[in-house]
Amino acid sequence: MRKIWAFVILGVISVIQQQEVKAQCPNDNGFLMNFTPVCNNTAENVTNCITGGQYVAVDVVAGNVYTFSTCGSNAFDTYITIYNSSGGGALGYDDDFCNSQSSVTWTASFTGTLWVLVDRYGCNSNTICIPLNITCSVGPPLAPGDEPCSATALTVGTSCNSTSSTTAGSTSSTGVAAPTCASYTGYDVWFTAVVPAS
């Protein structure tokens, strides 16, 4: 009876350990190359040979939509994780979008450099080559008030006037520090108002 229980307990521990492996990979890969995609909604072959444990530095433009993919090859089981080169946590992650290959679609929340990490299953390195493709499409027009200098003017009066807005199509503002409260996710819109002395 004790042997059976020991087997069951080990089986549960094994399942838990396998689930913990499926998470975004840490930002610790080796640099492979720089890449600037053409934003014409066509998949571009960045390289035929990226190995597990490498990353590509990709120039991105706020508002554009990017897809990073290793689909179409079965050289090895991939993870893709994306990071802002300026720091911070992962912006996107995928494992097994197309069988054992990965694909991440992301709308750029800033203009700058994105690191696209490719790892072997379990966030490991290897020496096997796999192609990495990027598709870029121009995103929707920027939201009104996307930047402080284009803030939407509000009317100030003696009674309440409701105004509706959305952060759809907005990006993070350039030259303004991100707020440290309210779970800021990289998208903001701005408003301005002239308040009378009364």
Quick summary:
The protein has one helix spanning 2-21, and strands spanning 30-35, 44-50, 54-60, 65-69, 78-84, 90-95, 103-107, 112-120, 130-137, 152-153, 191-192. It is mostly beta strands and 198 residues long.
Number of helices in the DSSP assignment: 1
- Number of DSSP-assigned strands: 11
Structural class: mainly beta
Radius of gyration: 22 Å
Proportion of residues in extended strands: 25-35%
Describe the sheet with the most strands: 5 strands, mixed
CA distance, first residue to last residue? 83 Å
The average pLDDT value, as a whole number, equals 83
Write the element-wise H/E pattern from the N-terminal end onward: HEEEEEEEEEEE
Q: What is the overall silhouette? A: elongated
Name the strands of the widest sheet in spatial order: 1-3-8-5-6
